[in-house]
Amino acid sequence: MPISRDSVVAASAAETVMNSATPHGKANAAPEAALAVDVRQLHKQYGGRTVVDNLSFHIRAGECYGLLGPNGAGKTTTLRALLGLVPIDGGSVHVLGYNMRTQAQAARAHIGVVPQMDGLDPDFTVEENLLVFGRYFGLSDAQIRARIPELLDFAALTPKKSARINELSGGMKRRLTLARALVNDPDLIVLDEPTTGLDPQARHLVWERLRALLARGKTILLTTHFMDEAERLCERLGVVDHGRLVAEGEPRELIAQHLEPYVVEVYGEGAEAWLHANRACLPGRVEVAGETVFCYLDDPAPVVSQLHATPGLRYLQRPANLEDLFLRLTGRDMREEG
């Protein structure tokens, strides 16, 4: 199940967050002092089924790290373990120097979460949603009200501060959810599918706001199914499948490491017939998905020339991208949540 606002709030509200705002009794920091997140050999089972299998990765302070994977790959369980919302069966998780087995309460005071579902309270205005959420962190109303103008300006919602939630567009709600996650001025921001359902204009505005957070030195952990989003925002990323890390690195480096540099897509009526007639002379790797033939090539010129001389075929030549990498590593089969 996705991370919900209520699960994070309930975990925080059930404890005395005021006592954790100052990190006394803080665990020893990870060996690399600049690490915001250090996950080592994380293992988690549900009902005898392994969902996270000795997973290790780290996030440097001030970077945006993408955790990618198909449905059921173990991403949500990993995020919940990282937030101290589920007990782990093995390994260790340190966040901002805190041991999440024993000090999750203290760590959560310094983390902001943008869940998949907004969970905004429709009975409150934009401003009231920020005020109420800030109280969960033990902040006084005076402290929260002092931060609200900056948060509204950041989310481009100042004119909407008195509006009810049902008066907001989807993009406005998403920006408010992002602003709400910043009410405690967190050092780490966890974003779970932050732009799902948004139109291109709203997505680009959210990306702009996330870049602004990175410029302020915040650390971001991002999960997304939009590969262009990950490629634009993430300095490094890890691809998870069946609970294991199958690849990790900078996006362009991973693409160069695992893929041919060019892709030619041949699609529509006649694509498969063209493939059968020309497969023996096609260089490189070829995949078929539905009515589209994907040719992965070091040099696309001969194939493009041949296609250009074949009437009626539609095709597209482009550089290999992160979506190609994702499909290469995790396959094209549909996955269900679980």
Round the mean pLDDT to the nearest integer and report it. 89
Please tell me the CATH architecture of the largest domain by its name. Answer: 3-Layer(aba) Sandwich
The strand order across the widest sheet is: 6-7-8-3-9-10
- CATH homologous superfamily assignment of the largest domain: P-loop containing nucleotide triphosphate hydrolases
Class from helix and strand fractions: alpha/beta
Q: N- to C-terminal separation?
A: 8 Å
Description:
By secondary structure, this protein is an alpha/beta fold. It has two domains: 5-250, Rossmann fold, CATH 3.40.50.300; 260-319, 2-Layer Sandwich (Alpha-Beta Plaits). Helices cover 34% and strands 25% of the residues. A six-stranded mixed sheet has the order 6-7-8-3-9-10, with helices on both faces. Strands 2-1-4-5 form a four-stranded antiparallel sheet. A four-stranded antiparallel sheet has the order 12-13-11-14, with helices on one face. Strand 1 (35-46) and strand 2 form a beta hairpin. Mean pLDDT is 89; it is low at 12-32.
Report a brief summary of the structure.
It contains 12 helices and 14 strands.
Which labels suit this protein?
alpha/beta, Rossmann fold, Alpha-Beta Plaits, 12 helices
Topology, element by element:
Elements: H1 5-13, E1 35-46, E2 49-60, E3 64-68, H2 75-82, E4 90-95, E5 98-99, H3 104-108, E6 111-114, H4 126-135, H5 141-154, H6 170-181, E7 188-192, H7 200-215, E8 219-223, H8 227-233, E9 236-241, E10 244-249, H9 251-258, E11 262-267, H10 271-278, E12 285-289, E13 292-297, H11 301-308, E14 314-319, H12 322-330
Parallel strand pairs: 3-8, 3-9, 6-7, 7-8
Antiparallel strand pairs: 1-2, 1-4, 4-5, 9-10, 11-13, 11-14, 12-13
Helix pairs in contact: 4-5, 9-12
